[in-house]
Design goal:
Chain lengths: ~350, ~350, ~350, ~350
């Protein structure tokens, strides 16, 4: 397979990670780094590199060897930059969130479709060994039906002027949820609650609740104000429960083979049950850890070459964006439940 | 101090614990155990006891040496039994929740007030060494302002026909919150979300969200469907954070002396801050563990003798009941926020 | 099966636990409690019991309905009391250590043998759910060959005048080791090191090292001077490793299915290996917890009725006693290795 | 201060870490990397570096700008290489263990002394934030007298042909012990026990016991055959206990302020004590983590410029070497205790 010629736009916080992985993968060939500050771009790629540096996106887009562009700039610029790339016939990988508004996001997906180009959203967590193991476990039916998904993502975060805790941390849990839910199970609505107890002008503590189409429920606790870090997700299934503790290297996933067995005594009377409890083994499966971003970069390249949608395509980015937008609306309406599902 | 003559009504699940503690304390004298099944009552007190057994509450109430009655029967009977006791001039300790409806609860408080009698609600958790240490820590100002209170109470629970996860587990967190919040800080409203993903006819997974009057937020995750037990409460303060893990005997409370320091750059522009992070020590204070129920029983006796309101009086029970009732209404309205504060 | 008539001698620290279990089991009938202080004996059994109380062992031994005696007195009295019982034709259960000296212990075993009576040593830990699970795991070959056994038993202990840390805590690990080692694998020798760093006149920190007959090694760290409690045993096998953390209720045993695979490149040159490492799952098996002492009491009764040696018979007690005695000698000789195996 | 001109000999396993730190520090100037394979050396420093590469140590030693040489080659070569450097008037930093034999080690120390040159041993652990915090805690008297030091260093290790578990892992614990013991307290002797239960031709499980001059005891459990990693050191003091868990980033050190208070009842009778137990707080101090090897490199440069002995000088290396050599002798004599202290 011929390596995909790539340019990275944005050499700030996340860009250097993309640059490193595009440079290292044999499936891609990094041609350009474009940043408002060419000095910063140069510093990231080093003095000896053959990669070109510019502050002019047009120059990049005119290079016929650039087939694809990775956009790692602030969210407000995602849409205009991506549209420019599509107009120039380039595939696009964009950081999360896909765009600043649902309208922009939809237009991006449509533009990519119309041009027959790939639009991929960098939902990095979906490419971690842990989340892929979770998806595999669910797909294999080991958990049974998904009863609940409960995530706690708590940390001392950098308080930002233009982003609240939902738009900062929420895309992680929303994209993971979107990725692992089995076919046919979707979040049907979302309610959000938040607080800004230190008066910084942004929600710093937030809760998301998403009723699922199968009667289950998903929930995320997002918190910037905790000196101890917690990153734990519990997924309760009708057969087994899975606990993912992302801060426990070497043993991040635990599967509990215990639970409740219900036997309806009388089908007519729904409320009468013989309840029995199973106490079963706990298993921490061995997981080979790999760098998630390397897989992101390679999925991008492979999906372009194979002419198929990437695992986390523009539509996945759009679903996360829809949930974030609806959460914002819910906050504005004192936590009122907002319907989802327009973007599918 | 002359011991308070006491009768216990209900020798089922919780009654025997009350009976044991009333019998053991020097501040009380257990006179009667009253149960629909006198055999069960007899079994609990043993064959050699001088305590009387009956299935007739009237007999108990006619005994002039009975000054106080502890009610450990199903919630629907709390109100009629308590009213009978008040009519007979007896002080009352009642299990949580105070009553089945807010109206009944209010009438109970009013009846006790009118008769000049003590009404205490058995919010047992408020008498544990951990919760008393938490209250002390907050009262001493060690946490600073309360920014958030987040509780996770997750367990494989016995699925019950007539009680959902809110009414079963919620009183614990609501009474603790009521107990520890500093003067002047109150929950202003409540929203509730739930799921019954196994179709048992009762909410088995639930979330409560309570905006606080100081701009903070309280939240509880209540869950009957998890084979692993979690009982962790995080209380974030402006100065320090406290983590209470009730499943870690000998080291249940951890205080983190790290956090965020904000310095407003310009008072006029609220959104500009110099943020700095402190990395501080963590302290697990030594706590002498005592049986909570023993303290419940002694607080009941002391408050009667001293003619003062007990720490967890009928009004505290009423506030918890108001929150539970409002949560039920929120569920009926798809999670819409319900105002609180009518009962203060 | 007719219940075994039993007397308990000694109502001090451990006696009450035996008394409770003998009274509760259907396989035994508690007839007497004998203690130097009949008041203490009476207090333990309560005022309503039909069990007899005495301070005169002869009275007990003359009762033809007493078939067996449990001895829970200080170690120095084990031998004379047991010999008296054997002389009276009674079976004996004795607390650990079996006796104060190896000679006494041997004489006890011989006396029991000569009289055709049961002598059982109360190695309580061998009857816990954890140790039985460990034995089962080893017997099933799940661990493969036993490479090492490493135990840490560390705690703030009551400093005693007449017992050092080896004689206090050592019997636990030595009896467990004796119990779980597969047939044909035995400790061949023992070395002991200790310190009395607070100058209390007794070894308070001690280490035991026991080379095993299969080339493996066993080791125990015994420590009275630690405010944090540790009770962890690691058993390394050629196939799997087992970690037993006795302070983690509900998840005391963890099995690691990872390890080393050796492939000799050349049988002639022992030192050349292809080493490969397996990273495998970790499993915490579900274990139903039962009271160990209840099983002790029932094993005693069953072994008497079935005329067979109990699981932890006098010989097991003797092997532990031999190791303790040899450890004492090792200490006296600056840690010199002492041969074991005289008692098998 | 003028940067110290440095050459690194050996670009294999550990060398690249030294090279990176010498290159990054402003206190040193890396001039040469010398390796049997100049290609490997070149690969480590990269194609763009001004650092010279050679396989000829003489070329390095002839460079007048090279003031100091860091030796990261196999132990058997430490002595001849270091002696060559001293003969050429160069200061030396050498990896642990200092040399392969005590005689060689002594000769190295003497040669450095005679030439007035610095000899430093790279006991990296002594420069970690954790060990420096431990030393500080002990020096401040917070632990009181050192009663015991117990280390467990357990891991699946690479089985090596020419090194056993003592020479591989032992230098860590021996150098830490040497570093943190307060003035006047020294290990007086050493006993070693080991096993090679998989028949690989090397001790894979080992125990070291070192009686201390103050009546305390030090002990290390070294183990290559465990799939789970444990790196825990407990230091019991007369006032407090410290637990160092090196696998718990952000909370590696815990201080327990609980323990035993002894009050002799009668000075004449040593064995009578009023024992009382204190239950105190536990504190995990905040520790700023820095790269240990950077501090090694800077201590080397500073000690050269200041003409003083480095923190971990040749004599410290020699003390560790003496203990390792004595341990080997102890193994050969079935664990017999070997005196230490010849090297002080």
């Amino acid at each position: 397979m011929k390596p995909v010629g790539v340019a990275v736009v944005g050499a700030g916080y996340w860009g250097p990670n993309l640059i490193r992985n595009f440079a290292a993968s044999e499936l891609t060939r990094l041609r350009w780094v474009c940043d408002l500050s060419p000095e910063r771009a140069q510093q990231v790629i080093g003095t000896q590199s053959e990669v070109n540096v510019t502050d002019d996106l047009d120059e990049v887009l005119q290079d016929p060897e650039v087939e694809a562009v990775a956009i790692a700039t602030p969210p407000s610029t995602h849409s205009p930059l991506a549209q420019k790339c599509f107009a120039a016939g380039k595939h696009v990988l964009v950081e999360k969130p896909l765009a600043e508004s649902l309208e922009e996001g939809r237009a991006m997906v449509e533009a990519a479709d119309a041009a027959g180009l790939t639009l991929m959203c960098d939902h990095t967590f979906c490419y971690t060994s842990s989340v892929r193991k979770i998806k595999e476990t669910i797909d294999d039916g080991e958990l049974g039906d998904i009863l609940y998904f409960d995530s706690v993502r708590v940390n001392l975060g950098l308080i930002q002027r233009d982003v609240d805790v939902f738009w900062d941390l929420g895309p992680h849990d929303l994209s993971i949820l979107d990725f692992i839910l089995p076919d046919g199970v979707t979040p049907e609505a979302i309610a959000a609650h938040s607080a800004d107890p230190m008066n910084v002008g942004q929600a710093c503590v937030g809760y998301l609740t998403l009723p699922l189409s199968n009667g289950g429920i998903a929930h995320a606790h997002l918190n910037w104000l905790s000196p101890t870090k917690i990153r734990t997700t519990i997924i309760g299934g009708s057969k087994r429960m899975l606990v993912w503790d992302d801060l426990r290297p070497g043993q991040r996933i635990h599967l509990y083979d215990s639970g409740i067995d219900l036997e309806p005594v009388d089908a007519a009377k729904r409320r009468e049950y013989l309840v029995s409890y199973r106490a079963g083994d706990m298993i921490a499966p061995a997981i080979r850890e790999t760098e998630a971003l390397r897989l992101v970069v390679e999925e991008f390249a492979n999906s372009i070459r194979e002419g198929r949608a990437p695992l986390t395509d523009g539509r996945a980015g759009l679903r996360v964006l829809e949930a974030l937008t609806a959460a914002r609306q819910s906050i504005a309406q004192s936590g009122a439940m907002q319907q989802l599902g327009q973007t599918r």
